[in-house]
Queue: 2 jobs
Job 1
Amino acid sequence: MNATPLQARALYEEVADRLRQRIFNRELPPGAWIDEMKIAQELGISRTPLREAIKVLAAEGLVTMKVRRGAYVTEVSSQDLREVYELLALLEADAAEAVCWRATDEELTELARLHAELEAAADHAQHGSRERFFELNEAFHLRVLDLGGNRWRKQLVLDLRKVMKLHRHASLAKEGRVAESLAEHRAILQALQARDRQAAVDAVRRHFANGLQAAI
């Protein structure tokens, strides 16, 4: 079998990963035009895999294609953000409820250790270094999704979170938001440890409601 198609696919996926990271790091901010020629030269590739990568990001909602104008980093409106947060609240609350009845004690202990790392990273986040907090924050949410099962739910959440990341720096940069977010994660963990389904659902929904208020 000819291996060329697989190699081409691997290339555009790698390019998509690099562009996605540039978007999340604000090297390509919302509204920025994606200069295909310049980026292709920087990466040492032809424009074909770059265009395939842009299609991937467009499907994820991170890039918007404009007729006769090219590709632009998506600018998320307040309404878009509300809709994303509403869906994340529903999906992640559902996952938290499932965790209450299906997770083992050992898995909840592991989740508690992850939260302890988040607590330790919070002090650095409050003094300007937020990347580790972002990383652990997302790891906590994704672990809850893993423990809740249902790979389709997780895939939906992953796609929605890519859009949410376009605004995450702004939301957690607001004064006091890191501490609030940490307290909300603590409440989620406590509800899961108690296997209190309603408390877990309420804690997750409150977390996203507060996150939305900080983001808009």
Job 2
Amino acid sequence: MTETPPPRVRVTGPPRRRAGVVRTPGAREIDAETALGEVFMRSLLREQLVLALRVLAALALTLGLVPLVFHLHPALGEVEVGPVPLAWLVLGVLTYPWLLVLGWVYVRRAEHNERDFADLVGETATADEDQR
């Protein structure tokens, strides 16, 4: 016995609505752009802004002060590590791992802020979504 193939489905883009998601009152407030939803969004944006400013401050205090240290202590400009001057080593080599660390910390904290926001708003998914 031959089975008939399933009907063809034309995929034109992502689904318009996620099936099985329960919209909580907090999420509905945000979607409806009410005053409460605006407060929720402002709190998330404020947290993300504070995080960005903290990472920027860490960057400025570490890498931004390196030229000042070399200016205030000119003898450091004469120090060499092997054939490479210390200033080149610090600014040309050690800078990039530090930028990677700052980026990694920023992304982890930003995702943590978003998870906390989702918990605050009460966005939940059904068991079908959790199993995927």
